[in-house]
Amino acid sequence: MSIIVKPIVTYKGVHKNFGDVEVLKGIDLNIAPGEKVAIIGPSGSGKTTIIRLLMTLEEPSAGDIYVEGNNLWKMQRGNKMVRANEKHLRKIRSDIGMVFQHFNLFPHMTVLENCVISPVEVQGIDKQTAKKLAMEMLEKVGLKDKLDKYPDQLSGGQKQRVAMARALVMKPKVMLFDEVTSALDPELVGEVLEVIRDLAEEGEMAMILVTHEMDFALDVADRVLFLDKGVIAERGTAKEVIEESKNERLQEFLKRFRS
Questions:
Q1: Residue ranges in the chain modelled with pLDDT below 70
Q2: What Cα–Cα distance (Å) separates residue 211 from each residue in 32, 97, 254?
């Protein structure tokens, strides 16, 4: 008898408009606990918007998003569903972490302070416990020797690894990566991808990775989605999508990554 695994994240008929421009046109997607999903596609296809909706940085124009069966953007009031308030959003998204393209570190705080502030301020963890956890996560990303450095004393790759440690301290069940290597010099890309690869191998967190690193997606992702003009134009295993698909738009997109 097969075991039915409930998805940790579900998108149902999700649309997103920015003014008159419809960026997402009815996204349906289930992500299982621990699953690694890479999203690829041309610029402007809606890739980043998908994860920004889950992180509550953007609000859907229509449709529903569920996290562990709980509606993210709607809540029950009496006998009807209404728009979620900030308290509801905070509670549901507490299991979600995000690593951004441009690090978003506090420049006036040390590496350790950047990693300690969220568990203390958001989760109410005492400072010593948060500090211990932050040091563990900084060691995990290979930066235990940079605790007292400030962001401007780090390379781009090191900053991105601090951003990962900061997200990991919150113990998320789902981690979102938004083109985390696109702002890095080419020689620094490998060190960041290696950390993500290690996290993926641990297997505990679900991951959604918006990426243009095709070899990395092949190596790490359980599934790949090809987004084109606001719809999921192709989905399947990494091998099916990146190496075997006959989709003409996808083939055209992948050509730029092949020598």
A1: 1-3, 258-259
A2: 19, 17, 13
